[in-house]
Design a protein that fits this description.
By secondary structure, the protein is an all-beta fold. Helices cover about 0% and strands about 50% of the residues. The chain contains no helices and 5 strands. The protein is elongated. The mean pLDDT is about 90.
Length: about 70
């Protein structure tokens, strides 16, 4: 997901994942990305298909997520 010149929060219904629990690894631009474009943050979380993915983008930033079913 790419973002505009303003910060933005995305809320995405996780129902597209199907039943179950998933591990999500999120790579996103750091708050100082306009001055330091190579500063990428990584975070991990657990996602349930019954929930929502809440994703924050900094101004002019973006993000990528890897979502895998839990074993």
């Amino acid at each position: 997901i790419g973002n505009s010149k303003s910060s933005h929060e995305f809320s995405i219904d996780a129902g597209f994942l199907g039943d179950g629990t998933y591990d999500m690894t999120l790579y996103h631009d750091a708050p100082d990305s306009e001055q330091n474009p190579n500063n990428i943050l990584r975070s991990e979380s657990v996602v349930k298909s019954s929930g929502h993915l809440v994703l924050d983008c900094v101004p002019a930033g973006g993000l990528a997520a890897i979502i895998k079913a839990r074993k």
